[in-house]
Amino acid sequence: MENQNIKVWILDDEWFTHELEEEIYTKHGIEFKVTRSESLQEDFQSFGKHADGIVAQVGFDFGKDYISKLTNCKIIASSGVGFNHIDLKAAKKKGIYVTNMADYCIGEVSDHTIALALVVVRRLRAYNEQVRNGEWDPLDTLPIHRLKGRTVGLLGFGRIAKEVARKFKVFGVQVIAHDKFVPEEVFSELGVESVTLDELLERSNILSLHVPLTKETEGLINYERMKQLQKGSFIINTCRGAIINEADLTRAIEEGHIAGAGLDVLVEEPPNKDLELLHLDEVYVTPHSSYVSVESEYELRSRTCLNVIRAIEGEVPEFVLNDVKVNV
Q: Is-contact 177 192, C-beta < 8 A?
């Protein structure tokens, strides 16, 4: 493609350099512009409104107010797995593809999930703080239970959850899962028991969350559902923060029903420094970083570029989320 009128608009508050995107888009004769939150409105009027493709980082709320004003757009690509920041219906109405990169960072997120579980189950934060404070007592953080023989429950059984199941089995745990959209044979192939949501909660010693944020899943793990978990259970979340009611989680931990939580995501990111969860000894938080590796960043950015170009050139891109039928 050699057409300097083709434009791609990148909405990104995370990465500070875009040499990879520049290399790919320049090779295809495409003009691109990177916009940060502070100049969103101005850049939308001068550039984004007329862009042929848009790449929207999760932190940008790209709703119908923007989408309805687009004049040339063929694709809005989420630069990640999550897509709840893009209005799928509004884009479909305009005949615009919405895509994500659904199969990237599976290894990284599944590794991070296991790591968070080990940190909170083995009480590594408490041990580390103790040693930093000049103490040396291996018995002051009990109870700690061995993983072997425990039950890990997966809420959601997509690509990442399947990999989590494979990796967790090495520890000798029983893995159960709930996902009403996955056929029974898929669970059977991986030796994972398919259960109802109530069964998942009632049987899990470790509950790991792997669902997208939707109206149905927002606030799903509330106080009542936490109380269904066995006393002394742990919650791990590497999907979206709003799946959990954070005030309810704080309450359940303070009451001693939930033994701890490993969280890579929060409702508000970055959080208010006064968020009570951040100051509980039983909680270990990382900054929405489970996807991070040198390899995954390269894969995400390069494949997102190529997916945008694919749509602009009239091909059907990968991982279309909104069932658009485009006349090409």
A: yes
